Amino acid sequence: MTEQPNLETIVSLCKRRGFVFQASEIYGGLAGFYDYGPLGVELVNKLKAEWWRATVTDNDNIFGVDGAIIQNPKLWEASGHVAGFNDPMVEDLVTHKRYRADHLAGTDSTDLKELAQLLKDKQSPDGNNLSEPRYFNMMMQTFIGPVHDSNSVAYLRPETAGSIFTNFNNVRETMRAKLPFGIAQIGKAFRNEISPRDFIFRVRELEQMEMQYFIKPDQQADVYESWRQFAWSFLVDKLGIKEENLQWHEHDEKERAHYAAAAHDVYFKFPQGFKELWGTHNRTDYDLTNHQNFSGKDLTYYDEDTKDKYIPYVIESSVGVGRMFMAVLVNAYHEEQVNGETRVVLKLKPELAPYRVAVSPLLKNKPELVAKARQVYENLKTEFGSVMWDDNGNIGKRYRRQDEIGTPYCVTVDFDSLSDDSVTVRDRDTTEQKRVKISELVSNL
Questions:
Q1: Total domains in the fold of the chain
Q2: Residue 2: pLDDT band by 50, 70, 90 thresholds?
């Protein structure tokens, strides 16, 4: 087995096999934007379904919403994004290319004075002098209505949590929810990154899976720890990510948002090193308090047991779909020697693989084999849904192709199948083959 794949290997696989394409590629693309292809969509949808099942469906007190991408601009004033959603930026004084100052400096600090000191003797990637660091607001601006003026300014949401907080009362009242309870959402967010990079790791259009869990203030320590462990367990148990590819990162006071009482990230070993994958944050009562102050609406919670009235604390669990997708691919990628040849195989969990099984006639120019294989294909498609028909090339090439996209099983209909109603089933991970009766195929798979 090879070492962990580099970024170029993953990018090549994604393009070659239809997982991810550059957005508007025929026009030269657009930095920070990507399209998911046929196999990518299948994998993404299964990742989202697993997260939704574990977060929402399996919990009686967590409810889903789907908020609008464009909200009232006052929401983002209340959340602090208009004033504070900033990254430090420097500019190449010759080419005028712009870069994240903290990335060039190799630090997690966003303090301008500290960055200026770290960068004073450094040059841009093109070898030119740099400007002084300054802040850049990452929200993407748009306009509502026919006139483009200050009264029509709106923003594409920079995170999905905003509409969760503004719907706190709506969900509580309609679902008759009592603390503790959570609100979850999967949706697009937009960040005008200064320097998008590392494929789909840092992009300008992303999809988030977020859950905000509302609690009594005195429950924060235990609840925080339980959702922190939820993130780790989900990645290992549900997605099959190896624990040696994961590590914890606790935010220190400089990294942590000013309102946060605690913050931990699960880091994954991406090709560019250990980087943030999943965040768990104790946001205290900051969000609901600010939205109450800015909107003038009462967002306090009346506790029928204690007769107290207070602003709930919030524990946030947040992960990006694209980063989870990338982590799963990197974790599953293997190169192995089989019969003197190198094969590439994605050892995805069967329930995550874009296709659960591939069905092939041994020869595509034999009508009787094709007809029998079609019957098997239709039966399996009814049972599993995600089944691929593959009759292109010889059987060895088909196996290699299915290995590379992570298909757990290949079913081949041959001439013996016409007489014994059996097929050959090949296992992706072991490459072992066995004969299985067609009547027992579903239960066997």
A1: 2
A2: low
